[in-house]
Design a protein that fits this description.
- By secondary structure, the chain is mainly α.
- The protein is 76% helix and 2% strand.
- The strands form two sheets. It has a two-stranded antiparallel ribbon with strand order 1-4.
- Strand 2 and strand 3 form a beta hairpin.
- Helix 3 runs parallel beside helix 14, helix 4 packs across helix 13 and helix 6 runs antiparallel to helix 12.
- The chain starts with a helix and ends with a helix.
């Protein structure tokens, strides 16, 4: 290779220089990993090749993605919500009782209001008492779990709701109805994040709370509203699970505690706040669902599944950190 050719390839505008400057979008990395995992499942596990099974996977992933939508808002804000698991359980148990006592419509509305109130209480505690989100939401988790134990002595609660049954188990034009519920929730959240002053405030607070406040952003109100939305989405998830299974119990939300955070992180949203995309969370929720299904079919013990999931999350965090530092 001549000197001129080598300089053209490695100089400021050369091919090698352009390649070094190229930094993949974390969402793109998540999408690639999702396609690779899905392809592996189709090639290695015969039962995964059926259309019905893939629709079932979408239905299950929609529950995780729905609660992760709310978690995404909180993480973008620079916080975290550990109370979502307890809020899901609260909505299932209390919702089952309220639907039986008040009727379907009022019972569902009251349950969603209670779930949003839990999120609002988290936001108020963080704002007024200056508690770290981790501490405040962990306290809420413990309080709700203790309250539920007193409320219903830990016994399962059945909830007959034709509307919730249709939303959780039905299909529209061949698509599971939870996926359609998720689509509506995600579309509304995308509008909030990218077409309103609230969305701009969320990103601003997550990037630099002090600078956002000095710029006139109502930081306290944004935080309270965001945690209320997170509680609402967790409550909606709890009601859908109630409609799916027909009953609720004390620990029904536990599987969604770490997995909702994992879906956000795997989807490329910075755990430090201010950077991330909702579509990444949706892809992350589907990736985690398929990944867990594969580990289950391969008869990996639960301890091994937890370790593998943790390793995947850690690996992606390291990759995303390298990508962000090189930008």
């Amino acid at each position: 290779m001549s000197t001129t050719t080598r300089d053209a390839a490695t100089g400021p505008g050369g091919t090698a220089a352009r390649w070094r400057r190229w930094r993949p979008d974390p969402v793109l990395l998540t999408a690639i990993l999702l396609l690779a995992t899905w392809a592996f499942s189709l090639l290695q596990i015969a039962g995964y090749r059926s259309w019905d099974y893939n629709l079932f996977t979408l239905r299950v992933a929609a529950f995780l993605a729905l609660v992760a939508v709310g978690q995404t808002l909180v993480v973008l804000l620079g916080g975290i919500d550990l109370s979502v698991a307890a809020t899901i359980s609260l909505s299932g148990v209390v919702g089952g009782n309220l639907i039986g006592r008040l009727g379907e419509g009022p019972g569902i509305a009251a349950t969603l209001a209670i779930a949003a109130a839990v999120g609002m209480a988290n936001g108020l505690g963080i704002v007024t008492m200056r508690l770290p989100p981790l501490v405040m939401t962990l306290a809420s988790l413990s309080i709700i779990q203790g309250g539920l134990l007193i409320y219903n002595a830990g016994n399962p609660v059945s909830g007959e709701s034709p509307l919730l049954g249709r939303l959780a188990n039905g299909d529209v034009a061949g698509l599971p109805t939870p996926v359609l519920v998720l689509a509506v929730a995600a579309a509304a959240t995308l509008v909030l994040l990218h077409r309103t002053a609230y969305g701009r405030a969320v990103y601003a607070v997550g990037t630099n709370p002090l600078a956002a406040e000095l710029s006139g952003v109502p930081v306290a109100r944004v935080q309270i509203a965001t945690y209320a939305l997170c509680g609402f989405f967790a409550g909606l998830t709890g009601l859908l699970i109630l409609g799916w299974t027909g009953y609720s119990y004390l620990n029904m939300g536990d599987p969604y505690l770490l997995s909702s955070i994992a879906a956000v992180v795997v989807g490329g949203t910075s755990i430090l706040g201010g950077r991330g995309k909702l579509v990444g969370t949706l892809l992350g929720a589907l990736l985690l669902t398929i990944f867990v299904n594969i580990l289950t079919v391969l008869k990996i013990p639960e301890a091994g599944r937890i370790m593998v999931q943790g390793g995947l999350i850690l690996l992606l965090l390291l990759v995303y950190a390298v990508v962000e530092e090189s930008r």
